[in-house]
Amino acid sequence: MKNNLLIAAMLLSSTVLATGMVVADPMTPQGQNDASWRYTGAFYAFLPARTTGTTTISGVTAPVDLDLGQVLENLDFAASGRLEAWKGDWGILVDANYYSLSADGNLPGPAGAPVGINVRQEWLGLIGAYRIANGTYGQSGNRFTVDLQAGARYNSLRQTVNIATPVPGVTLGGDESWWEPVIGARGKWELNDRWTTVASMEFGGFGAGGNDLQVAVNAGFDYKPWENTSVIFGYRYFSMDYSTTLAGGPFAYDVEQHGPYIGIKYVFQ
C-alpha cells in the first residue's frame, strides 16, 4: 500500500522551482561611486523538462522520473519573485518562492479508501552581494560585472499522503522547516544596448537542517525591449538532497531538475 501511495506522491514532487535566478541589477558606469539606491524586481518561472531522483515518505523510498506535463497537471499554485537593492558595489537580495501540488484518488481494490496527496515547498532568502569586477571588454567597450553573494535562506518542505480510512484517518509524511547558509556568484556581459548574457551559480544547505546540498546553475539572456523592462530567459539546473527522520520514519527528497526558465524584470532607480 505504501509503495503505491509513494509512487503517486512522486508524480507530484516537482514544480516550477526558482531560486538564485539570474536576475541582474542595473549597471552603473565604470568607476562611478553611485550614492543613490538602484532597485530591480522580477517574477519568473522555472519549467523543469525533466525531474529525476528519489523521494521517501514514512521510510519507503521510490524513484522519481517526471516530465513537465506530469508536473503541470497537478499544480495548484506557484509564485516566485526576487528583489534587489544596490548602492555602489554593495547589494541586498530578497528571493521568495512558493508552490503547491496536490492530487486525489483511491487505493487499489474494490473498496479502496480515498487518498489525498500534497507536496509544498516554500523559501525566503536574504542575501548580501558585493561587486568584485566592473569593467568593459572588446572594441565596442561593452560592460561586464561579477558579483559574489552570501546569506541565509528559510526553507519549508511538505510531503503528505492522507488516507481517509474509518476514524481515525492515516497521514504519512509531514512538514519540515529549517534555516541554511547560501553562497553564490553571478556574471553579466552586455552584448549590445538590448541584449545581455547572464550566468550564475548558487550553493546552499551544507548539512544545515538536514539539507546536505542544494545547487542552482543558470545561463541565459536579458532582452530589454523597453527602457526599464526586460524579458529574462535561459536554461537552469537545480538539485536538492534533503533527509531527516520524522515520527513515522525517514523523510527525504533527493532530486535533480533541468529545463528552461522565463520571466520579466523591471528596473526602477
Automatic annotation (TrEMBL):
<feature type="signal peptide">
    <location>
        <begin position="1"/>
        <end position="18"/>
    </location>
</feature>
<protein>
    <recommendedName>
        <fullName>Outer membrane protein beta-barrel domain-containing protein</fullName>
    </recommendedName>
</protein>
<dbReference type="InterPro" id="IPR011250">
    <property type="entry name" value="OMP/PagP_B-barrel"/>
</dbReference>
<keyword id="KW-0732">Signal</keyword>
